[in-house]
Design brief:
By secondary structure, this protein is α/β, with parallel strands linked by helices. Helix 7 packs across helix 12. The strands form three sheets. Strands 3, 4, 5, 6, 9, 10 and 11 form a seven-stranded mixed β-sheet that branches. A two-stranded antiparallel ribbon has the order 1-2. A two-stranded parallel ribbon has the order 7-8. Helix content is about 45%, strand content about 25%. It has three domains: about 70 residues, Winged helix-like DNA-binding domain superfamily/Winged helix DNA-binding domain (Arc Repressor Mutant, subunit A, Orthogonal Bundle); about 100 residues, Periplasmic binding protein-like II (D-Maltodextrin-Binding Protein, domain 2); about 100 residues, Periplasmic binding protein-like II (D-Maltodextrin-Binding Protein, domain 2, 3-Layer(aba) Sandwich). About 30% of the residues are buried.
Length: about 290
């Protein structure tokens, strides 16, 4: 059995298409079928249900897919391990992160990293928090960076910093001249929220509930940039990471008011697949990220 067989099988399940799996691996559909049958014969199981219109993966097939991905991760990391031995920082670094961190926190670290290690090709994907975890588990991303990191099976978490959260409003808002605010001051205010499934929204909902604060939710969005624009347009308020509004505060389009609530900080975490070897490129990026705080 060759390593390529595991890639063929993985591509087949991910695309749900024998023809697409064949194209991705430069072989025929017949060869894809033969390789899957050989796996089924070797382990005496049915991995996929074949039909003219339907394609589905059996429970055994799902378990085999996880194992195949782990094998491919190990195989693909061999080169990095060799480079590690030679102390060379080269190759690729794929980072998945949420919008607010990717747009406002990471750029200086990415710039510094690229200057120090020009032989590493760095790519950054901006995703929802749940997608970041999926990318790391599936091996599409080497590292994930999220707010309010949560335990997940197969994921290692390293909390490395915290963000201060502030209340934002337009300068003409009645809070515009305030130097600080209590959570209780927000009671009944027109509030621009993140969507309910986002970690920051969940954390804020919990804090407000504990403080007995009820706001009037006008709009809900899935990213920080839209929240800020809605606050400007609707003359409402929101609670966001302080670093995410530095540009607007400097330009005078928004005010950022500190909240007298010590618990209103946002923990930031690195997430990494437990079975994935830490390459030199990953190790150096982690060092820069932690050293910059």
């Amino acid at each position: 059995m060759q390593v390529e067989t595991f890639k063929v099988y993985s591509d087949l399940i991910e695309t749900a298409s024998f023809s697409n799996a064949a194209k991705l691996n430069g072989i025929t559909q017949s060869a894809v079928s033969q390789q899957v049958r050989s796996l089924e014969k070797r382990f005496d199981v049915v991995l996929v249900e074949r039909g003219k219109k339907n394609f589905s993966v059996t429970p055994e097939g799902k378990i085999f897919l996880e194992a195949a991905r782990d094998i491919l991760d190990i195989y693909n990391s061999i080169g990095d391990r060799i480079h590690d031995m030679q102390n060379r920082v080269v190759g690729q670094l794929r980072v998945a992160t949420v919008f607010s961190l990717g747009l406002h926190e990471l750029p200086p670290f990415i710039k510094h990293y690229r200057e120090r290690f020009p032989d590493v090709e760095v790519t950054v994907d901006y995703l929802r928090s749940s997608q970041v975890y999926n990318e790391v588990i599936e091996g599409t991303a080497d590292l994930g960076i999220v707010a309010y990191p949560a335990k997940r099976k197969g994921i290692a978490i390293d909390e490395f910093a915290t963000d201060k959260l502030v209340c934002i409003c337009p300068p003409e808002h009645r809070f515009g001249g305030r130097k600080t605010l209590k959570l209780a001051d927000l009671n009944g205010e027109k509030f621009i929220s993140f969507e309910p499934d986002l970690p920051t929204r969940k954390a804020l909902d919990k804090e407000m509930k504990n403080a007995g604060v009820k706001v009037t939710r006008e709009m809900e969005f899935d990213n920080i940039e839209t929240v800020k624009r809605a606050v400007e347009i609707e003359n409402g308020i929101s609670i966001v990471p302080k670093n995410s509004v530095e540009g607007e505060v400097k330009a005078g389009s928004l005010r950022a008011i500190p909240l007298r609530a010590p618990s209103l900080v946002r923990p930031l975490g690195l997430v990494q697949k437990r079975t994935r070897a830490t390459s030199p490129a990953m190790r150096e990026f982690i060092a820069i990220l932690k050293g910059g705080r």
